[in-house]
Amino acid sequence: xxxEAPYSQAPEPFLRxxxxxxxxxxxxxxxxxxxxxxLGLTPAQFDVLATLGDTPGMTCKQLGEGTLITKGTxxxxxxxxxxxxxxxxxxGQADSRQVFVSLTPEGEAVFKATFQPHIDYLAxxxxxxxxxxxxxxxxxxxxxxxxxxxxxx
Length: 153
Known about the structure:
- This protein is mainly alpha-helical.
- 65% of the residues lie in helices and 8% in strands.
């Protein structure tokens, strides 16, 4: 953990909260990414496979909304997954400008081989905190999200 001295002396208490939140996010991300990479995928590839898994597929727009990947990054991730034979892209039937993405049989096999093992791996960490506290934390984080939500133009 980094030196908290400047934050512990800060007149704004929210700085201590923000620091704890950022440090926790970094820890969770490092553990998550390390395990995903041990499964032979990048975090972005895993995100796409996990989002498409057990679905008939979705549009690129839906996929972008369902993942934590930026629109600019998503195309490159899909290119690499398609080159590996894990996803298939096709044009929409109703609107040819739409791109529909689905897992190939190989992609479905990778999803089935990696998703549950990754969930099981993460559970060992999350289960260190009682479910009631996780529920409270979720509610607090949603409240924080709402506080930072920008009004629509």
